[in-house]
Design brief:
Blueprint lengths: L2 H20 L8 E4 L4 H4 L16 E4 L7 H12 L4 E2 L2 E2 L12 E4 H9 L8 H6 L2 H8 L2 E4 L4 H9 L4 H28 L3 H22 L10 H6 L7 H10 L5 H23 L10 H10 L4 H5 L8
Parallel strand pairs: 2-5
Antiparallel strand pairs: 1-2, 1-6, 3-4
Length: 314
């Protein structure tokens, strides 16, 4: 059983009845679900994931203190703590899990501020450019089982897609770094007799290619250990995961050198094809660098367009 399924079943069995019976005046102001950190919130958990921070629990998201006071919040915390500690063969931990409290009663403002820097999730252009996408994935991932007044659901919907200009700026930077690492530096490192440096170039190519593919799919890039899992499920270019695995797990000698260079060119060609299909580039060539600048040229905000092409890339 995956964490989302377990959490929903536990909420339906114990959480919803508790809210209806003990907090009828507040139930319509609360949002409840499994959202935030952890592979189970993104649906990437498996049997191995159950060795830590895996429990039958859920999150109760509260409005700010000027709406719901500390006393009521404390009463909710006590009511949540008294829910059954065993459910379908799984136990709730008696101590705080690794990485802090991920379940239970949480101020929505605290949750959003920790991930976006804003208590209401309202982001300006600078926020969109600085935020790591894994934190946005945590905000919009998982599921709400109880939407209350709809505030959190509306915030999640608003943050589900980044602005078009931000997407273009990030994509331009990723394409440029793909070109530098895969179409230029890889073979030069091999020619210099530096196989380790060549593999670093491969790693950079793969890292930025994965990020570019998520941008083309308009999905947020998750934490690195789940990127391949998520990549395989993407409708556009998800099949590139097989090539990336080969690139990362083979050496840089003999015939493998040209094979890897060819694989990177094939990925570049596939990415360029999607860029053209989506009308993101006007360049007509196989050089990712030229496509990077073509994507950047389509940014409508003049200040953002004229900023360094790598502004939004880590």
């Amino acid at each position: 059983m995956q964490g989302l399924e377990l959490s929903r079943a536990y909420f339906e069995a114990y959480g919803a009845p508790m809210l209806r019976a003990q907090f009828p005046d507040w139930a319509d102001r609360l949002a409840v679900g499994l959202v935030g950190s952890g592979s189970e919130c993104l649906g990437y958990d498996d049997a191995v994931s159950q060795d830590h921070d895996f429990e039958p629990g859920f999150c109760i998201f509260l409005p700010e203190e000027d709406v719901l006071d500390r006393k009521t919040a404390f009463q909710l915390e006590r009511a949540y703590a008294k829910l059954p500690g065993e459910f379908q063969g799984f136990s709730r931990p008696k101590l705080s899990p690794v990485g802090g409290n991920r379940r239970g009663v949480i101020r929505l403002g605290d949750f959003l501020e920790a991930r976006t820097g804003r208590r209401d999730g309202s982001l300006c252009l600078a926020d969109w450019l600085r935020l790591q996408e894994q934190y946005l994935a945590e905000v919009v991932g998982g599921a709400l089982f109880w939407t209350g007044d709809g505030e959190f659901a509306a915030i999640r919907a608003r943050l589900a897609h980044q602005p078009a200009d931000v997407r273009r700026k990030k994509l331009a930077g990723r394409l440029l770094l793909m070109a530098q690492a895969g179409q230029y530096n890889y073979l030069r490192c091999v020619a210099h007799g530096e196989p380790a440096a060549a593999q670093l170039a491969v790693g950079e190519f793969v890292r930025h290619a994965i990020a570019a593919i998520f941008l083309l799919n308009e999905r947020y890039l998750p934490y690195y250990k789940w990127q391949f899992r998520a990549l395989r499920a993407l409708p556009l270019l998800g099949g590139e995961a097989e090539s990336f695995e080969l690139l990362l797990t083979t050496d840089n000698s003999g015939q493998m050198v040209q094979a890897k260079a060819d694989l990177m060119e094939q990925t570049a060609t596939a990415v360029i094809g999607v860029l053209q299909d989506q009308g993101l580039t006007e360049a007509v060539c196989g050089d990712l660098e030229r496509h990077a600048y073509s994507v950047n040229d389509q940014i409508t905000d003049p200040d953002l367009r004229n900023a360094h092409v790598l502004l939004a890339v880590d």
